[in-house]
Amino acid sequence: MIDEMARLNMSYLLELLRDEKNIHRDMELMNKFLRERNCTFRGQVMPTLLKPNFLSPRQSTVLKRVVKIISNVLNKFIKYYFENEDVRKIMNFSAEENELFSIDPGYSVPLVISRLDAFMQDYDIRFLEFNCDSPAGTAYSDVLEDGFHNYLEKYNFLIHWKIKYSNRQDQLLNALLACYREFSSQQQKKKNPTIAIIDWEDVSTLSEFELLKVYFESKGYPTIISCPQKLKIRNGELTVDGEVIDIIYRRVITRELIKRMDEVNDFIQAVKDGLVCMANPFRSFIVGNKKVLAIMTDPAFQSIYSREELKIINQCIPWTKVLKDSKETFQNFQVNLRNFIYDNRENLVLKPASSYGGKDVYLGRDTTDDTWRRIVDENIDNENWVVQQYVPIPEDIFPELRGDEIHLKLKKVNI
Q1: Is pLDDT of 333 > 80?
Q2: What is the 3-state secondary structure (H, E, C) of the chain?
């Protein structure tokens, strides 16, 4: 099947090159499609290339199975965090964070919405980090895929392949409603609960909220886009501008919320008092910290996982350790971690444990020795960074427009 996928990619690129004279028109049509559907970021059309990333049916099946298992692992970890003092010490969250984590969401599975950032080479999957607090991209991905669906109809050769598409917004809506049904099992459930998408007013992803609002309302669920400061408790209910809210789709990031707690008292109090169903709950933030990968792969903390889960952890999570002055195990050898990091720069990566979006990530092979040692020395005592074994980044050929020409360029691919 991998050979078949190579044939599909090659056929696609050849067809594109045969139609080179129309490539600018096609790119303009794609951008027009995205702009008309409000698929924009900071006022600009969401950037894309004129080639999707194709997956084979088997790749898709493998990916879904592994993601399901890792999601179960992460949900177990959240429960384990509250039970194990040693885990809480390693994670080292603040008192304010722990207070938010302690709020019972009112339903059983805390990790409702996540984006597990991975590299996939053939059928081999490696997870580098987990975006579990409040990940974006659901509606954007649907519109981009719709754009390709529309664009690919022009290629007759694709009749030899059956291409399947997804609807992530529908899955998101179903997940929110499942939480609401469990949350309100002891209360009067509304047939069409009102959903509020909550984030700061000036966020870059406002256009995605508008896409989601259109979709949710097309399915019969009134939807409000607002900010945490506008949420007010009135007569035992949470409201925005006088309208009662039943479900909060939380897009505001936990860390940012804590910095502005004095502005959002009613929001936090309503969640504490169970006046509203909110997803994700604050405790989902626990498994967005990269120290989770170090603890998951440490035999001292693996008793909570099944044999199948341990197999996937060992296969899919690269060697990861909290950056500190300690003795650690690497491939059955005891090493002094500081010296090991110094001596194996080209095979390692340094990352802040709590950042996201690739911020301040240092690939040893792309970092000078002086800078590498400085980053280690500056952060080894605070234990807020992790060191991870370098994972080769998969590459594929994509068409890139330069002037009037198509250039076929190797691009790094994550999934």
Answers
A1: yes
A2: CHHHHHHHHHHHHHHHHHCHHHHHHHHHHHHHHHHHCCCEECCEECCCCCCCCCCCHHHHHHHHHHHHHHHHHHHHHHHHHHHCHHHHHHHCCCHHHHHHHCCCCCCCCCCCCCEEEEEEECCEEEEEEEECCCCCCHHHHHHHHHHHHHHHCCCHHHHHCCCCCCCHHHHHHHHHHHHHHHHCCCCCCCCCCCEEEECCCCCCCHHHHHHHHHHHHHCCCCEEEECHHHEEEECCEEEECCEECCEEEECCCHHHHHHCHHHCHHHHHHHHCCCCEEECCHHHHHHHCCHHHHHHCCHHHCCCCCHHHHHHHHHHCCCEEECCCCEEEECCEEEEHHHHHHHCHHHEEEEECCCCCCCCCEEHHHCCHHHHHHHHHHHCCCCCEEEEECCCCCEEEEEEEECCEEEEEEEECCC
